[in-house]
Amino acid sequence: MKNPDKEARKAKRETKIIPVDCVVEKFPPDIYGEKFKLKVGDSFRGTTINVSETGMLINCDFVLPERTIIKIIIPGGEIKETQIELKASIVRVKRNAYKIFGRYAVGLQIIEGKKEDIEKLIKHFI
Q1: How far apart are CA 110 and CA 107, in angstroms?
Q2: pTM of this prediction?
Q3: What 3-state DSSP class applies to 113?
Q4: Domains in the chain, start-ordered, CATH in brackets?
């Protein structure tokens, strides 16, 4: 039986909401030809819900397949003077019960980004 007091995640996550811009960079190669509303290079808006050293959860109105690579852009002025850019891989997508911040909750694994930017992002959430 799992210990309910122990966090199962590798990195502690912090919860807060900030707007983000996202750009589709690459779809998984095994879904070539699938029909999605967004194409490589298309952008969409989202909101972060929580963040950790290794990942983040965003809410958005578009469903994308797992393993899609997206660029996350946090506008300047939100966390620091200049914008923060991260690259992430979609690890899970779940439909939200309520559409307050977006129809889908998208779990992301951060695969590229400046360590100091990720640290500032986490400090902002604490």
Answers
A1: 10
A2: 0.81
A3: coil
A4: 14-125 (2.40.10.220)
